[in-house]
From TrEMBL:
Transmembrane segments: none annotated. This is histidine kinase. The keyword S-adenosyl-L-methionine does not apply. Its EC number is 2.7.13.3. The lineage of its organism: Bacteria, Pseudomonadati, Bacteroidota, Flavobacteriia, Flavobacteriales. It comes from Mariniflexile fucanivorans. The keyword RNA-binding does not apply. SMART domains: HATPase_c (SM00387). PROSITE patterns: HIS_KIN. One of its GO terms (molecular function) is phosphorelay sensor kinase activity. It is an enzyme of class 2 (transferase).
Length: 466
């Protein structure tokens, strides 16, 4: 059996060997320290990058909310976003100010405060710009104004910047200009009250994006408020016009009724007098009496025209399918047609939904107008229709005196006549245009002097069927 012995060998190091060993140990320590520093540096960089990415994501989330939300509650959205941004950048108070360069002041319009932080919005209204000249100069250049440590600001008097900030407990702050259409309109700001705070360049750039977002959303709100105000104004105006129109229509009916009664009396009395004295008076004596009757008839036409014009939009009768051939036949039966004038009507005219009285007024006035201004021995009036893709184009054509181009628009205005002779009221074509407009159609004319005139009007097929 073998006896094995374990020997412990102790080596004694010489001084030169001890020195070399220490040198080696220091090298290893330096390498480890370098690796540690590199790892720590990389971790810090990763944290900064990760923080910036989260900041960007937060901004995207806020932007999406602005886009998808109802801007009627914009104040709540802005306050929520101020809180989100404020908490992310570790500020204790975030706010929005508006510049008023007319009065040389600025005012706090929105504010968010962290827990236990006193609001300052009520104390920061109409603040003179002279108090903040330093950051105003920065904002005018489009730059942020950043103070990392308020206590390091110079003590520049009662109205200096430090004197404004320290009573609010502000240790650090940053303000970002709000610019709309290249014009400085205000700023957003972030105060740190509990401790000093720093903002990297990347964070400042993201805050600039946030400021632009606020400008856009507030501008959109302004536009919507302007549109809403215009709508309210429009509704009030329409209501006022409706009341005025109703009052005018009632006035027209009352006045017309009051005028018609004495006219009938005058016409009747003059007629009786002429009948009773037709053998005693000669033709010269009858001329002024006939002139009286002519003017009474003229006045009667005028009153009837006013009544018809004011009644167009007030008819309560339900629309029905109207046969245009039938209503034109009925209209021709009510018109006195001279022997030298021939009227032709196209067969198989379309039928449209509408009011019979209105359509009769259209054709009655156009046909009567064609008869009144016919100067030919063989007068001709043609009535017809051409079918278009989505509408019917009606026409009333004559071979009369024609109309100058200067009058093409004027003749549709109330009381406009080509000549003052005759008993025409000057309202007929105005009635026609008003009726066509009521049915969302259009009317126009073509004319040549001494050759004749054609009035066209177009009505949608949606009004009816053939």
């Amino acid at each position: 059996m073998l006896n094995l012995k374990v020997y412990e060998v102790k080596t004694k190091l010489t001084p030169s060997m001890q020195k070399e060993n220490l040198h080696t140990t220091n090298k290893i320590s330096e390498v480890n320290k370098s690796d540690y520093n590199q790892n720590t540096s990389q971790l810090e960089k990763d944290k900064i990058i990760e923080r910036h990415l989260r900041f960007q994501d937060l901004l995207i989330s806020i932007s999406t909310k602005y886009i998808n939300s109802d801007l009627s509650d914009i104040d709540k959205l802005i306050c929520e976003s101020l809180q989100q941004i404020g908490e992310f950048v570790l500020s204790d108070r975030s706010y929005i100010f508006s510049y008023d360069f007319t009065n040389n002041t600025c005012s706090n319009t929105y504010e968010w405060c962290a827990k236990d932080i006193e609001p300052e919005i009520d104390n920061l209204q109409n603040l003179p710009l002279d108090y903040i000249t330093q950051w105003l100069d920065a904002h005018k250049k489009g730059d942020a104004f950043y103070i990392e440590d308020v206590s390091l600001l110079p003590k520049d008097g009662e109205f200096g910047l430090r004197a404004v900030l320290e009573p609010q407990g502000i240790k650090s702050l940053i303000t970002i200009p709000k610019i709309k259409n290249n014009e400085l309109i205000g700023f957003i700001g972030f105060d740190s009250v509990k401790k000093l705070n720093t903002f990297s360049k990347n964070e400042q750039e993201i805050l600039f994006v946030y400021a632009n977002m606020l400008v856009n959303v507030l501008q959109k709100k302004e536009y919507e408020e302007q549109i809403k105000a215009q709508e309210i104004k429009k509704e009030a105006l329409l209501k006022s016009l409706s009341i005025q129109n109703e009052e005018l229509n009632e006035y027209a009916h009352v006045v017309s009724h009051d005028l018609k009664a004495p006219l009938i009396n005058i016409y009747t009395l003059v007629g009786w007098f002429m009948d009773d004295n037709k053998e005693a008076l000669d033709e010269n004596a009858f001329k002024p009496l006939k002139q009286v009757l002519f003017n009474v008839e003229k006045m009667d036409f005028l009153i009837k025209g006013i009544l018809d014009y004011s009644t167009i939009d007030k008819l309560d009768e339900v629309d029905k399918l109207v046969d245009f051939n039938l209503i034109i036949t009925e209209v021709l039966q009510t018109i006195l047609i001279p022997n030298h004038i021939k009227i032709t009507v196209q067969e198989n005219l379309p039928s449209l939904f509408g009011n019979t009285w209105r359509f009769k007024q259209v054709f009655q006035n156009l046909i009567q107008n064609a008869i009144n201004y016919c100067d030919k021995d063989n007068g001709l009036v043609e009535i017809g229709c051409v079918e278009k893709d989505s509408s019917y184009q009606f026409f009333v054509k004559d071979n009369g005196i024609g109309i100058k181009a200067d009058y093409f628009e004027k003749i549709f205005k109330v009381f406009t006549k080509l000549e003052s002779t005759g008993s025409s009221s000057g309202i007929g074509l105005s009635i026609v245009k008003k009726i066509i407009s009521h049915y969302k159609g259009s009317i126009w004319l073509e004319s040549e002097l001494d050759m004749g005139t054609t009035f066209y009007f177009k009505l949608s097929k949606d009004m009816g069927t053939n």
